[in-house]
Specification:
Layout (H helix, E strand, L loop, with lengths): L1 H10 L1 H44 L5 E9 L6 H18 L4 E17 L6 E7 L3 H4 E6 L14 H7 L8 E6 H7 L6 E8 L2 E15 L17 E3 L2 H10 L4 E10 L9 H14 L3 E3 L2 H43 L1 H9 L4 H35 L20 H24 L7 H5 L7 H4 L2 H18 L1 H9 L6 H33 L5 H13 L4 H36 L3 E4 L3 E6 L5 E6 L4 H8 L3 E17 L2 E11 L1 H7 L15 H10 L3 E5 H6 L7 E7 L9 E13 L8 E5 L5 E5 L2 E5 H8 L4 E7 L5 H13 L24 H12 E3 H9 L2 H35 L1 H9 L4 H38 L18 H28 L2 H10 L1
Parallel strand pairs: 3-8, 5-7, 15-21, 16-18
Antiparallel strand pairs: 1-9, 1-10, 2-3, 2-6, 2-9, 4-7, 6-7, 11-22, 11-23, 12-13, 14-15, 14-17, 14-22, 16-21, 17-18, 19-20
Helix pairs in contact: 1-11, 2-9, 2-11, 2-12, 2-28, 9-12, 9-17, 9-19, 9-28, 11-12, 11-28, 15-17, 17-18, 17-19, 17-30, 18-30, 19-27, 19-28, 19-30, 25-26, 28-31, 29-32
């Protein structure tokens, strides 16, 4: 039996190879899902942890416990620390992740203290931080020898010998720079601390032996920084144990922070660890962590990724199913006689079914092996994209084979076996006499055409589109709140394309009947025979038309959707940044508290000359200072607004540096934005305002307004210190760096949309009226230069070395986990990157986000597969059709029809069965683009913006699709011509006699 099946496969090897290709591609696309889902999930997790570290300024994976113990229950500090270590061991027993670092701090309540040089009644806490010597540097020591920015560490061994001075009774301690500045203390100064002693208080002297600061404040160890421990005086373990005797009836306060390697949390263990941490919290009310919030956000986004993957894969899977159905139907049609012979020789339906089940099983098994390999390659190729049809050599090492791919492959193979084999059961008739009736061309109208399913589906698609368009704002907010998207919103365009394809098949049939009725009397014999064939086979040929239309329309839509998403994201990022790069300079705020209760403050401006020198170095074409204040009050005769955004600019420098990303069709504003800068330059006290501000305050050009600014937060809260009257010079809808819409998320995760107002003033006027305040440096890069050149130049100037290695800043875990480096250049480079915002950097980060990467990858795969399947399917269908009609053409030739007329007949059929569907597919693809692209863009661009979503259609994509189809048609025509030329009339007629 098995040998018989192998021979059957060999007899039609080319058709079976095409079927194998379709099955392998179907399985490959199927197995892409688990691999993409897992690795995209890991990418989301990494991004969420990194974002948490950046936004919250803390290590993103820490477990902690804070509370108190009774001093009487513990003999010394070691027993307390051992207790804390026990908690850590218990946590990591379940959450099996490597420890990055741990910080344990124990403190005694301390008391009031007087300082030797004048500080009275200050409150200090006595603390012991075991790893202080390892992670802190000495700034000043008791000998007043300055050791700022050196590598000298606290020597705890020496401290243990010196910190218990029995002859003098003075204990040595260390304090942080924050404590030194806050209390005005100096190294070598004594502190007289009041500690409990039986019924009263005992004064114990401490001498400040060392003033310290963090070696690297970004080290994961510093869950609590020294600044957070501002009232703590640090002592050695021996001193702390001695102090415990005085506080025997008191409590020891402790904080224990365990930092874990978040890179080991992945899609496979995230749910398990989240459950364990939830149990920790339920069992221990003092336990806390910052991991569960990140995981909650991940689980929500993971669900969205799953739905999105299926929604993006489904149209391509349907296309492959159509391709496989077309090939398998052709094979089954050619093997009808074989089935009849088997049935006539006594084979039962079940035996015939098992025979073809084995045949399809061999193909499915082979496709399963090929599909797994091909799926792995396809997934990694899709992951390497950073745009539509843009494959890069970026690192995709995280995308690895997962065991679930085998399960998906087997499931897809089973589906294919059933899909290919089930129609055989229907073809197995009881009598060989049924052959003649089965051999006739079916003229029965399909069920979908009888029931107008095409019209119903088209109406359903239109209703869904209308309904979703009405809910755009709600859908956008849902996306911003990380809620699951509705997959039907993505699939609606596929429903529209399918319904429109069916409708086009119906209309094509009507066009054929109409042309035949109008011109039948004028047809030549060849043309008459052609239309007769079209009328007879129009129901059977509809499958090819639907296949071509869906392929072309789907390819066009995928290309346009990907281009629109990528282009709009880039445009918005460029607009939001406003220039090539922005450096947020560090300003030092000096505050003076006067005896009368008033406060004087001022900012020290850094050296702006080093940025201007970037122009002389040929790195930048433009550099300018921009003061930005997001808390400005504006008032006019008709009312007032608060929290407006102020920008103070030098109009000439700003025009040479900033960029305003224009709308695709027209400029955002009524005229070029340089005209507004010219108007501002003419009026020293003038301002440019945003259109929404002008509308709300009923302002127009020439009107006056007043704007006020608040003191820095470090000085006071909600205190206005200066105001200025200004004249409105211009009103704009868009301006470089001005985002009209902002979104705030409350504690419950609900997102609220707000509008921001803009006021732009002259830099010199603002500095004169309000004094120097922090500004950012905007830069316009010279041609061929990049952000790395800026970092190298500024870092080289600061450190004396231009050869600086850059860091990508992608991980919150310091490189000191693996190696420790004292290379100051790297530190400078890292600090510069931290304060630098680059449009290109943001674009690159956006391209590498999981959602965008999945979309670009799947649209690219779908487009390429569409081209392959369409070309192979189109060529194969027509070649097989010609083979089946060989007898018919032989008869025509025997009747005197010339070869030229036969070719004309085939060309006419190609026009109605191929050219019209291709043309319809193009129109439907463009229509789907116009109708659905803006709606689906909500998933990727949910925020409202000054720049609306513009649809992009790249001619190059259309030319690629048209070129491939043209080649397929040309090859098909050449193959048909050769087949016709090689056809022998006598052989064809003999074929008719044999049949």
């Amino acid at each position: 039996m098995f040998g018989f099946v192998i021979n059957k496969l060999k007899n039609r090897k080319w058709l079976n190879l095409c079927l194998l290709m379709g099955v392998a591609l179907f399985i490959a696309l199927f197995v892409c899902h688990p691999m993409f889902e897992k690795d995209a999930g890991n990418q989301i997790l990494d991004r969420l942890f990194t974002d948490h570290a950046t936004q919250q300024n803390e290590f993103p994976a820490q477990m902690s416990r804070e509370g108190t113990y009774a001093v009487a229950d513990y003999s010394d500090s070691r027993s307390v620390l051992d207790k804390l270590s026990g908690y850590e061991q218990k946590w990591t027993e379940y959450v099996d992740i490597d420890k990055v670092s741990a910080q344990q701090l124990i403190t005694l309540s301390g008391g009031r203290a007087d300082a030797e040089f004048g500080g009275l009644n200050n409150y200090f806490t006595i603390g012991y931080l075991p790893e202080l010597s390892e992670y802190a540097d000495v700034v000043k020591s008791q000998t007043d020898e300055k050791k700022s920015d050196t590598s000298e560490n606290l020597d705890e061994t020496q401290a243990n010998k010196e910190n218990t001075s029995t002859d003098t009774g003075v204990f040595k301690c260390s304090i942080s720079e924050k404590t030194m500045d806050h209390y005005g203390l100096v190294a070598g100064e004594k502190i007289y601390l009041q500690v409990p002693d039986g019924s009263g208080k005992k004064e114990i002297p401490f001498v400040i032996s060392q003033i310290c600061r963090e070696k690297d404040i970004n080290d994961p160890y510093w869950a609590k920084t020294l600044s957070d421990m501002g009232d703590v005086i640090f002592v050695s373990q021996d001193v702390f144990d001695e102090m415990m005797q005085y506080y025997s009836e008191d409590n020891i306060s402790y904080s224990d922070f365990l930092m874990l390697d978040y890179r080991q949390i992945n899609t496979e263990n995230a749910s398990l660890y989240d459950g364990y941490m939830e149990q920790f919290k339920d069992a221990d009310k003092l336990y806390s962590d910052n991991i569960r919030d990140t995981l909650d956000s991940f689980f929500s986004q993971q669900k969205t990724i799953k739905l999105m993957l299926w929604a993006l894969e489904l149209p391509c899977l349907v296309l492959l199913v159509l391709f496989i159905r077309m090939i398998s139907a052709q094979i089954l049609s050619l093997e009808e006689n074989d089935i009849l012979v088997l049935r006539s020789r006594g084979a039962t339906k079940l035996q015939v079914f098992i025979l073809y089940l084995q045949q399809s099983g061999i193909i499915a098994f082979s496709g399963c092996i090929l599909g797994i390999v091909l799926g792995y390659i396809m997934c990694r190729a899709a992951a390497s994209t950073d745009g539509f049809l843009k494959f890069t050599a970026k690192d995709i090492g995280t995308y690895r084979f997962v065991w679930q791919m085998i399960v998906y492959a087997v499931a897809a193979a089973v589906i294919m076996v059933l899909f290919i084999t089930v129609p055989v059961w229907k073809k197995s008739k009881d009598a060989i006499s049924d052959r003649s009736s089965r051999g006739r061309i079916s003229k029965k109208k399909p069920l979908w055409e009888k029931c107008f399913i095409d019209v119903v589906l088209l109406a359903l698609s239109a209703y869904l589109l209308y309904n979703y368009n009405k809910q755009k704002s709600t859908l956008a907010i849902a996306v911003l709140e990380n809620k699951s998207i509705d997959p039907v919103m993505i699939l609606d365009n596929s429903l529209f394309i399918f319904a429109a394809a069916l409708l086009c098949v119906r209309l094509t049939g009507l066009i054929i009947l109409l042309v035949d009725r109008l011109f039948k009397k004028h047809f030549s014999p060849a043309m008459y025979a052609s239309f007769l064939q079209l009328k007879r086979t129009r129901y059977n040929q509809g499958f090819l038309a639907v296949f071509l239309i869906m392929t072309v329309a789907g390819g066009i839509f995928d290309a346009n959707m990907a281009r629109t998403m990528n282009s709009n994201m880039e445009q918005r990022i460029i607009y939001n940044v406003g220039c090539d790069a922005i450096y947020n300079e560090d300003f030092r705020l000096r505050i003076q508290h006067n005896k009368d209760g008033s406060v004087n403050w001022m900012y020290d401006e850094p050296d702006f000359g080093r940025y201007e020198s970037l122009k002389n170095a040929g790195i930048c074409d433009g550099v300018t200072r921009v003061i930005e204040d997001e808390k400005v009050d504006i008032s006019a005769n008709s009312g007032s607004v608060s929290d407006a955004n102020l920008m103070a600019i030098n109009t000439k420098e700003f025009g040479q540096t900033a960029k305003l990303q224009s709308d695709q069709n027209d400029d955002i504003n009524d005229k070029h934005w340089f005209n507004y800068l010219n108007e501002l330059a003419k009026e020293p006290d003038g301002v440019i305002i945003s259109s929404n501000l002008a509308k709300d305050l009923e302002l127009k050009v020439g009107d006056s307004l007043n704007y006020s600014r608040y003191v820095p937060k470090a000085v006071g809260d909600d205190e206005i210190y200066a105001s200025e009257n200004a004249k409105v010079c211009a009103i704009v809808k868009g301006f470089p760096g001005y985002e009209r819409y902002t979104y705030e998320t409350d504690a419950d995760g609900n997102v609220t949309e707000h509008e921001r107002y803009l006021i732009v003033a002259n830099y010199a006027t603002v500095v004169e009226k309000f004094g120097m305040t922090p500004y950012s440096v905007w830069m316009n890069l010279s041609k061929g230069k990049s952000v790395e050149d800026i970092v190298g130049y500024l870092g080289g100037e600061n450190s004396g070395d231009n050869d600086i290695k850059t860091t990508d800043g992608s991980s919150a875990i310091s490189d000191s986990m693996d190696t420790t480096t004292d290379n100051q250049n790297k530190k400078d480079s890292s600090e510069i990157y931290k304060n630098l915002t680059s449009a290109q950097q943001l674009i690159d980060e956006n391209k590498n986000s999981a959602t965008v990467q999945i979309t670009n990858g799947m649209f690219t795969l779908s487009f390429i597969l569409s081209l392959i399947v369409c070309s192979v399917g189109f060529l194969l269908y027509w070649v097989m059709t010609l083979k089946q009609r060989e007898l018919q053409f032989g008869i025509y030739r025997a009747m005197g029809m010339r070869m030229r007329e036969v070719k004309a007949m085939l060309i006419n059929e190609q026009i109605f069965l191929s050219f019209l569907p291709l043309l319809a597919g193009t129109g439907i693809g463009i229509a789907a683009t116009a109708m659905f692209v803006r709606l689906i863009s909500i998933i990727y661009l949910p925020q409202k913006h000054n720049i609306g979503v513009n649809v992009y259609i790249y001619p190059s994509d259309m030319l690629e699709l048209a070129g491939v189809l043209f080649v397929a048609i040309a090859v098909c025509y050449v193959v048909i011509s050769r087949l016709l030329r090689s056809m022998k009339i006598a052989q064809a007629l003999r074929l008719g006699e044999d049949s």
